[in-house]
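Dear colleague,

Thank you for sharing your sequence with our group. We've completed the structure prediction you requested, and as agreed, I am returning the results in plain text so they can be pasted directly into your records. Please verify that the sequence below matches your submission; if there's any discrepancy, let me know and we will rerun it promptly.
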Amino acid sequence: MNDAVEVQQGIFEFNSPKEVDTDQWLEEHLDCDTIADYKGNKLIVYAFTLDPRYNYALEEYKESKRLDKQHILGGISSDGLNSLISLT
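Please find the predicted structure tokens below.
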């Protein structure tokens, strides 16, 4: 993620919003939240965490940047995903 900058401790933002595949993004960002717009099976990502300890700060960051129309997408739980995989 060379085009993402840490703008606040634990919160990263792309230089300009980035369109990504939803499934791939969620798989690569387990447990971590994202500020995004939905566009079919794609996301337009504005900011995100790389460590779940900073998920709580994403709501404040969203408000401070006035990203009122964007959504916070909760990361898929790695524990939940691992339990599903172990069932197969």
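Summary note from our side: The chain is about 30% helix and 40% strand.

Kind regards,
the structure core
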